[in-house]
Structures are given as C-alpha cells and as structure tokens.
C-alpha cells in the first residue's frame, strides 16, 4: 500500500505577514555541478516576492530545489515550519506548493481542457474551472484546441490555470512574461494582483524588473548562486542604478 500523506501540519493560509517559506544555507547540485552556494531568503504569507538576476544566476534552480527537482540539495527549506529537505516532489506538492515552469509544460497532444484537468487536486481550496475561466477567458474559448494551436500567451495562461486547480497556496512562477506581447503581460500582472488579493502567496522569477515592480512587495537579487541583496518595492526607484548593475541592463 502507498504511504499515506498528511497535510494537517500546514495550514491553508498563513496570517498575513507571517513567514510561510524560509530558505536557509541552501546548496544545490546538478550532477557534479554546484549551482547554489548558500541561498537565504523568506517569503511571507500573502505577499509576492521576486528573484531577480541575470541568466545563470541560480533563480530557476532555487525554485526547483524548493520542489525537490534537483539531484542533490542541502540546507533548510521550511514551509510553515515543515522541513522539505529530504521529501520527494510529490510530498512537497501535497503540502501546498506548485511550480509553473518557464517552458510551461503544455502537452501538445492534449486539448486545453485535458491539459487543465491533468494534474491532480492535492489539497482543498483550489480554483474551479469557472474561476479559472474568469481569470483567463481565452481558455474557455479555446477549450477544444490542441496544445500546439495555442499562442505563447494562451499557453502561459493554461500553465498558470493548471496549478491553480491543485489547491496549492504557494505558487512559484518562472519567467511568466518571457516572450509575451505587452497586452498579455498586463493580463498576467492583473492575475497576479488578483491572486494575491485572494490570499495566495507567490514567488516569482523575473528578468523584467519593470514588470516585477508592478506586482511584487520585495525583490531578492541573485548572483552566482547566492542572494546578494534585498530591495523592498517601495525603494525600487531609488535603487535603480544598483539594479541596472546587478542585472546588466
């Protein structure tokens, strides 16, 4: 018989402002390649936090490490006090974390409805189809369209909508605006703001810090597998020169 999984230790929602996710001294490897070198940061319940940095800085690896999707990781990752180091990805997902990968992971042979319904619901509190279509009306119109027929923006909507079904309260979005038209970027921004208002907590990987500034509360700067700075959104304008230097723009 498969091992029973309990989620009772992790509440559906954390009090606003309380630390939900805490990462400390996190190291991660792909094979022999040592990618993360002691990452330290936290995400508070109900906030949007970003990981900003250049390509190859370790942002995506940080998300994958939280989900247990790397070959080896050491340090500490806690979700509402529950230690994730040592747990497999399926157990971590059942504790209430979901990742929307940069490559989106849409199955070309399945239509929109089949893609949307594919992941299992792992916790109560996920959004139903009507709520998802309220966020992304395009998906309802393309319900029978194959994954190969969707635009980049529609694929991103589907990838986000799919994890909203699962019941996860901590959403990790990897470069959700990359390659999208400005009108779709604005829609993604409105969606993130609405999800935050409904109590979701979001960890966002972005290179577009102009977009990040419209949705995030705090920005962590990642360089060479470490967090090197923290910029509250209220101080973003005053820190622009520093951000340009960090991001190489």
Care to describe what's here?
With 249 residues, the chain is α/β, with parallel strands linked by helices. It has nine helices and ten strands. Strands 6-7-8-3-9-10 form a six-stranded mixed sheet, sandwiched between helices. Strand 7, helix 7 and strand 8 form a beta-alpha-beta unit. The chain is globular, with a radius of gyration of 18 Å. The N and C termini lie far apart (54 Å). The N terminus is likely disordered.
Keywords:
single chain, about 250 residues, alpha/beta, six-stranded mixed beta sheet, four-stranded antiparallel beta sheet, 9 helices, globular, disordered N terminus
* Tally of DSSP β-strands: 10
Give the topology string: H per helix, E per strand: EEEHEEHEHHHHEHEHEEH
Structural class: alpha/beta
- Ends apart, CA distance between termini: 54 Å
How would you describe the shape?
globular
**In terms of per-residue confidence, which ranges show pLDDT below 50 for 5 or more consecutive residues?**
1-14
**Strand order, sheet with most strands:** 6-7-8-3-9-10
Mean pLDDT equals 90
Percentage of residues in DSSP E strands: 25-35%
| Main pleated sheet | 6 strands, mixed
What Rg, in angstroms, do the CA atoms define? Answer: 18 Å
The percentage helix is 25-40%
Number of helices: 9
């Amino acid at each position: 018989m498969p091992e029973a999984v309990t989620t009772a230790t992790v509440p559906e929602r954390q009090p606003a402002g309380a630390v939900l996710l805490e990462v400390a001294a996190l190291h991660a490897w792909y094979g022999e390649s040592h990618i993360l070198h002691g990452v330290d940061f936290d995400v508070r319940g109900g906030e949007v936090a970003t990981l900003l940095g250049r390509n190859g800085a370790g942002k995506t690896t940080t998300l994958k490490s939280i989900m247990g999707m790397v070959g080896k990781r050491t340090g500490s990752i806690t979700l509402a006090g529950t230690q994730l180091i040592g747990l497999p990805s399926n157990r971590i997902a059942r504790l209430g974390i979901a990742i929307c990968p940069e490559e989106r992971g849409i199955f070309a042979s399945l239509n929109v409805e089949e893609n949307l319904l594919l992941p299992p619901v792992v916790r109560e509190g996920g959004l139903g189809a009507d709520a998802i279509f309220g966020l992304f009306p395009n998906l309802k119109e393309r319900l029978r369209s194959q994954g190969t027929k969707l635009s980049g923006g529609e694929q991103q909507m589907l990838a986000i909508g799919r994890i909203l079904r699962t019941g996860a309260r901590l959403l990790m979005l990897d470069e959700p605006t990359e390659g999208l038209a400005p009108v779709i970027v604005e829609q993604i921004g409105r969606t993130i703001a609405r999800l935050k208002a409904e109590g979701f907590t979001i960890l966002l990987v972005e290179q577009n810090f102009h977009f990040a500034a419209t949705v995030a509360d705090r920005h962590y700067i990642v360089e060479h597998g470490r967090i090197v700075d923290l910029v509250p959104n209220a101080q973003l304008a005053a820190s622009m020169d520093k951000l340009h230097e960090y991001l190489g723009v």
